[in-house]
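I'll show a typical protein example:
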Amino acid sequence: MATVETDSRRRYLYLDRFLSKAGPTTDAEFVPGAETISTLENSRVLVIGAGGLGCEILKDLAMSGFRDIHVIDMDTIDVSNLNRQFLFRKDDVGKSKAEVAANAVMKRCKNVKITPFNGKIQDKDEDFYMQFKIIICGLDSIEARRWINATLVGMVDMDNPESLKPLIDGGTEGFKGQARVILPTLTSCIECQLDMHAPRAAVPLCTLATIPRQPEHCIEWAKIIAWEEHRKETVLDTDDPEHITWLYEKSLNRAKEFNIPGVTYQLTQGVVKNIIPAIASTNAIIAAACCNEAFKIATSCNPYLTNYMMYTGDDGIYTYTFEHEQKPDCPVCGNLAKTITINPNHMLQQFIESLGERPEAQLKKPTLRTESTSLYFQSPPSLEEQTRPNLSKKLKDLVADGEEIGVSDPSFAIDFKFKLVFQS
């Protein structure tokens, strides 16, 4: 009678054959046979996100020979997830995505161990991330990508090669997607490529306040205006279900007032957290690309992607691969200040607002300072009050042409450096 181990090995017969011989593009350090197979099985991989993309990634990793997988996600399963997040069932609604996804894959792949974590990636320290050989992102948030990217870059110790953790990032939006391989400090990072992810166009406050026309306008009104009026003392936490529910209810009432259909809890989450929509087939393709790169990195069986693959499936199937170059003025992996051209006659308030709209910045609550003085602090309240008068001052009265400023944002673990150049 066949043992569980024998049955499990039979599942990976095609992989064993593939890893038991060298090919024309095999890396020089590739060792065919049992040693490489063992390395693959013992490679500890972290998957960030157990949603549409994360479910596909977990399945693909387990079927590709990885046996030590960890997954982290802070969300619970909603009924709207069931159409594309195939590891979940109706009875799972309300349960932890990470835990349900892990158990679903382990039920099918007996010899695979998946350790789930239900929580925020920001709650884990560097020691947690140091234990993994590869980290794969299946996130639907630009902010979360930027955070893990900065954390992994900050972890790199040139005297310790093990501190460099390859980051494989997958992302989808409708019928479009991308996969990229990032070697922190050595190749272009997510922050280098930030301008490829343009922020959502801002809606004028007058539209939100007086004549909303779309369900998104009602949600933005609840987030920006209603919250400030009714819950000013509470900091909005977009990861708190109670806060999202409050915004949803306010948005729904606003929509009914103006006869605007379409406000749902899911849409409220998407607008407030800037969540990118997903389609199941796109998730499957991008997840396969990400896991293919993880397989190549873990086994050295073939050269890995350098470093960006774009996919579009809305009009046929098209992929394009190119090498995105590292930027010397990247605030995360570079050592130069990023140059920003500004109108010297603009007020500081206008410049702060523009930082949220600029593709290369996308900072929502920036605190600014020069080498010699504080320009504006978002918190604590005492410093905010002290620096508030600067908001109505012209930039030319606060900084010199070509002067560097430091900018911090509570959403990120790093400080940004900008060189302000006046328009002639």
Summary: The longest strand covers residues 415-422. DSSP finds 14 helices and 13 strands in the chain.
